[in-house]
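Our consortium's second objective concerns turning raw sequence data into structural hypotheses that experimental partners can test. To show how far this objective has progressed, the report includes one record in full. It was chosen at random from the queue rather than selected for favorable results. The single chain below, 205 residues long, was entered without modification.
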Amino acid sequence: MQLQLKDLGRGFAEPALCSQSVFRHALDALSLPGRVQMLDASGALAGMQAPQGAHPAAAALLLALLDQDCKLWLSPALAQGDAPAWLRFHTGCVLVAEVAQADFAWVASSAELPALSAFAQGSAEYPDQSATCIVQVQGLQASAQPWTLRGPGIKGSTQLHVDGFQADFCAQWRSGQTHFPCGVDFFFTHGQSLVGLPRSTLIEG
């Protein structure tokens, strides 16, 4: 999709301060799995114009995490809109056609989520060379059948509600953990909210 510069939505109003704020929320989300983080509409998100079909929290995460050395894969619904031009302009990231090549993936909905085995998993020597995936979901409310989470950052257990998610995700997640410390780290977003699911977290559900 060809867009002129004047047609691109705005990024962060104050890139350094906003990136730092969102990055802190991202760290909190991964260190406290299952705990929903809310981005400030009058702070980091103020003035940001996310691409069509994008959750503000997902767009802000990518603005904070990406730079010119990062390779990004977009699911079809995002790749066909203004997200590619918006991200290239605001972050300088490199877009890739194959999910296995990506450092980061942005998925418009769970219906477009590739098999977890398709993502870069890293290696025992370099587990940091795995992918981080940001998935937009229909909600993070108690209306969904909860997943029970256990592991680092969780006292005992906690429950995570993810609306509109494919049924076999938990099975794929458990299968991938047999190769830990390899694996994929996840963020789920809805509106201005985000929650982290690092590869170290155990899921029952």
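The partners drew two points from this record. The mean pLDDT is 92. Helices lie at 15-31, 56-65, 76-79, 83-91, 169-176. Both points have been shared with the crystallography group to help prioritize constructs.
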